[in-house]
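re: ur question from earlier - yeah i can do the single chain one, its not a big deal. heres the input i used so u can compare w yours
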Amino acid sequence: MLILGIESSCDDTGASLVEDGRTLLSNALASQAAEHNLYGGVVPEIASRRHIENISAVAQKTLEDAGKTIQDVDAVAVTFAPGLIGAVLVGVNFAKGLAYSAQKPLIPVHHLRGHIAALYLAHATLKPPFLCLVASGGHSHIVQVDTYTSFKILGRTVDDAAGEAFDKVSRTLGLGYPGGPAVSKAAKSGNPAAYKLPTPKVEGAYNVSFSGLKTAVLNQVNQAQMRGEPVNVADMAASFEYKITDILAEKLLAAAKDTGAKQICVAGGVAANSQLRQTLLAGSKALQAQLFLPEVSLCGDNAAMIAAQGYYEYQAGNVASLNLNGMPTLPIDYDAGDFNI
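and the output i got, formated as tokens:
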């Protein structure tokens, strides 16, 4: 079954063709990172306008790259939640129009479910149940994946997401946007023990908090500037990266130990972080569990993951009508029967 995926939840416009949820045929992406870097982060109105400009060409490119036409496609899958609502609506409305004109089923896909599905494109043998850390610019969740369309949240951030914290620390250190890759690059030449940063305390065995950690970096930088002292950017970047990845790894491995999970996964933009990957690789071996990681190229927002999850949503009977609307927030464990999609 051939699924055309459409993704526009933030600042990247994506379209992709995936066969049977596992085989990637083509993947096109129009990135806005360079433009948003001018403002230190995503400007929602600009993002929405660029999606409108790019989405048709991106969809056409992914069809051409695979040597297919819209008539070869069996269904159209689209991110309908969560995300920047203006951006989400561009993708939803485009997908609705395309599905209607081509007389194809319309499949609603939750963005975080899509991030998890990126793992299916890299690991042919991976099947639920498994435990997954989903860490990105807007989300940090530890999720128990029971089936392809059934999820249970075990832990989550109570404030800032990990990716959001990376972006804000990167801005503080003058490293640019997106923050994750910028901080990681600077950290390679730094000393992770150079600056003492706190481990925020939070209720809930697997919950995390990053607001205080982000603020601690900001305060140390501001205090140094007021004293006329230099801040070693590489050392601060390394200290922050070590602390935040250590917290994420500790919580995920604790959840794996307590639940007895033998398949541990990471998904989302932060899954590309090499420090996190190394820490989890060692920790999973200690638990005698297998670690599954997505391709680095599919860690960030992309349409391949939406097409992959779209296949499993379709198999579960989750097909939308043309009344489908975009939603800025929606938990990953939503029940499709709870509302009309």
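The mean pLDDT is 96. not sure if urs matches, ping me
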